[in-house]
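Minutes, project check-in
Item: structure for the 233-residue chain
Input as provided by the requester:
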Amino acid sequence: MTATVATIRSAKTLALVALGVLTLSACGDSHRLTSEEAWIETSAAKAHPIDFVGRREYLDVELPPSRHGLSRNQYADVYRFALRYKQESTGRLAVSHGGARYGGAAVADVRRAIEEAGIDPSRVARGKSGGRHLLTLSYERPVALAPECGHWPRDVGRERERVPYTDFGCATQRNLAGMVQNSRDLIGSQDESPASSERRGRVWSSYTGGDASSVKQVVGDTASESKPKSTKK
């Protein structure tokens, strides 16, 4: 009889312990995602953002004596570098050169090439002086840093919140950061080039004044389509 009572007590104890474990497990899984957490996990751009780091680009131009200007190749290099700066950078273009005894005409050619590339003089800054016979152009551009993927912190088979898994969209963000040619496009859209004023004026004139030839052609095409075809053989 004593052994039977002890066995019953042991069974009750084990049942209580098991119930306590289940209760603790339920408490541990009781956390539900907030609306903000669910929104972040649903948006790949928020859950796996692309970071950016600045990279400095340089162009060194060897300066001839002050009475000589840039060669054709040097002028083309400066012009192309200025175009790259215009497309890639959001800061200022730094220009540094040595003493005034060297590169007087060449410095003027550099300024002319920068202006020809469509860069406002206010965006050009004086950089740190380099070598006496050297002129250096430099600017900083953003470089995209791909997010790290492969994080699986929870069991994706149990999703009570009905949200995507944690790694959702990470591969797409990583590929985008690796493929983009100009990282500045990921920060914000660039300005559009102006449309052709001649074509815009012609289309607007046709719209407001009415182009008789265009109207006649449209009416003629419509009439020919609506006219029934002859069935005679």
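Outcome recorded: The mean pLDDT is 75.
No further action items on this chain.
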